[in-house]
Design a protein that fits this description.
Elements (H helix, E strand, L loop, with lengths): L3 E5 L9 E9 L8 E3 L6 E5 L4 E4 L5 E3 L3 E4 L6 E5 L3 E8 L19 E3 H5 L1 H12 L3 H16 L7 H12 L6 H7 L4 H11 L4 H19 L5 H7 L5 H12 L3 H4 L15
Antiparallel strand pairs: 1-2, 2-9, 3-8, 4-7, 4-9, 5-6, 5-8, 7-10
Helix pairs in contact: 2-3, 4-7, 8-9
Length: about 270
């Protein structure tokens, strides 16, 4: 069986929070030995109805990931390895979308896999059980949406200033100046950074950097690149060295190494068929 990624849209009333759902199915031999999840500015609830994965930390430590967990905001590449047959259902939130669903500070989740019982208590354990026992993606979506709607009943709203800044960062593909935005919108820079950190877990600058590198990665995946220098300038990096430094920070690879066979898990859904 080939690797089989599929994406699904959330209920219209959840689109403010949820970007999409996706599923991934495949035998171990169809999935590279190690996969790099590249930071993309989003947090994800992950349910492994197939076998789970091992996580390889940057200091060489190897841990087995839970069957059901939340992956917090990533600020560095996250390397995983399949243990067996992949069967995953994922809820991908918008950068500012997870705050209403949690009482745990967003910043404490950074670069971590948080088990559902730690996140939601007994309700989280039951949610994981229900989703793993479901027979189809449609059923899993129904279960998670019921859960999310229930959580929203007691919602904390994301600040309008944060929502507006996030929208701007996406509109300009990450070419974002915090100083300029603060001045134009009459927002205190420190206040913006503080609100961003509590709502998203990243600073405005970190999110902008993440969105910019993601855009560049999509170009690398889907277009014929004449030269890395051109790519760097087209994406408004100061120079090629700046581009390569940012690229390696997020992927763990140089742009040239990125062309290898190693499939980037978080980019599967951005590759044009």
């Amino acid at each position: 069986m080939e690797l089989n990624p599929k994406t699904y849209a959330p209920d219209i009333e959840l689109t403010e929070f949820v970007k999409r759902y996706w599923t991934l199915d495949g035998e171990k031999e169809n999935i590279p030995l190690k996969n790099t999840i590249v930071p993309d500015g989003t947090m994800k609830l992950i349910f492994h109805y197939g076998d789970t994965y091992r996580h390889h930390s940057q200091n060489g430590e190897i841990t087995v990931l839970p069957k059901c967990f939340l992956i917090g905001q990533l600020t560095k590449p996250y390397v995983i390895e399949p243990i067996g047959v992949t069967g995953s259902f994922v809820v991908q939130f918008k950068p500012n979308g997870f705050l209403p669903f949690t009482t745990m500070p967003i910043k404490e989740m950074e670069n971590k896999a948080i088990p559902l019982d730690k996140l939601f208590g007994e309700e989280g354990r039951k949610l994981g059980e229900q989703i793993l026992n479901a027979n189809a993606t449609s059923e899993r979506i129904q279960i998670i949406e019921t859960f999310l709607f229930n959580q929203l009943a007691d919602q904390k709203t994301v600040d309008n200033i944060v929502n507006s800044a996030v929208a701007t960062i996406f509109d300009v593909n990450g070419h974002f100046s915090v100083n300029e935005y603060s001045r134009t919108n009459n927002v205190n820079r420190r206040q913006l950074a503080r609100k961003f950190s509590s709502a998203i877990g990243l600073s405005p600058k970190q999110l902008a950097k993440t969105i910019r590198i993601q855009k560049t990665l999509k170009v690398l995946l889907n277009e014929e690149i004449r030269s890395l220098t051109d790519l760097a300038y087209e994406n408004e990096y100061f120079d090629q060295a700046h581009f390569i430094r940012d690229f390696k920070e997020f992927t763990g690879l140089t742009p040239k190494e990125f062309y290898g066979e190693d499939l980037k898990m978080s980019l599967i859904f951005d590759r044009k068929v």
